Amino acid sequence: MQYARLGNTGLIVSRLAFGAMTFGAGTAAANAFYKVSQNAADLLVGRSLDAGINHFNTADIYADGQSEIMLGKALGDRRHDVVISTKVGNRMGKALNKSGLSRKNIIAAVDASLKRLNTDYIDIYLAHRVDPYTPVEETVEAFQHLVAQGKVRYVGFSNWPAWMAAKAVGYQKANGYEPFRAAEMYYSLVGRDLEHELAPFVADAGIGVLVWSPLAGGFLSGKYTRQDPKGGGGRLSSINLVPLDLEKGYGVVDVLKKIAAARSTTPAAIALAWLQSRPWVASVLIGATGVEQLDQNLAAADLVLSAEDVSALDKVSAVAPPYPNWFMERFADRDAPKALGA
Prior knowledge:
By secondary structure, the chain is of the alpha/beta class. 39% of the residues lie in helices and 16% in strands.
């Protein structure tokens, strides 16, 4: 297993983290996600611990809190050996204020998560989404209150635009608050949008990225092809959280398969290893519904790609930079970098 610091902190996390989104049971519409029983969860968590994973991720919204409960039970007395990250912000009840990032909801939600996880502190607490009805300053102050109480060790955000996170960090630093240290974001070989704004920001701010859906909902496993776009009835045939340019994606999978064959491993392992090569990534969240699937993802634990492999994947998955990024690149000064040896 490879390890990294969480951003500019002393917290050491495994480069592969276990995502417990699949834990629990739900309605028919949610069964594509929630399908792991407590016994299966115990096996998956145990296998992850044996493999060297020390970071486990969940959220209050997953299976209406079942994921947190089951993760807490599966970890048992190993809880203090690991890092737990969970999230707040999505609706957890019919009452209007049981949603969002207001001071009221955050303070109530953290206590509920602590109870479900059967712990007295959360290592990494993340705002799960943007709340357009609550000032960022209020959210930041509520998080600081939790840190001061000792209920939360580190704070962060998920699915926020870079400008909003930068505004929050500026407010935190101006007031001497604990700044954001983690950003849980979608990132994959077929979803590289965060490289344009978010990646430069987190590198400058000392924030570590936690990657969700690193295989783009399973697309990068290689089972979805031009000949079988439904992947034999895989999850993407019924539900998908991320947008996909299928034709370009098939080209990415072709390269993944070529590199995987040369290394006697799977396309998924290569896709995960590519993410681990990104300097701003702290942990890549891998989920599983069974030990066999988990073991396939764990094949990336110690896998380091060559410069040639990384270059090939960078090229086939490249996306055109948006404005003003393309302008900055096209009209950048050429003399100063040359003089500085940059």
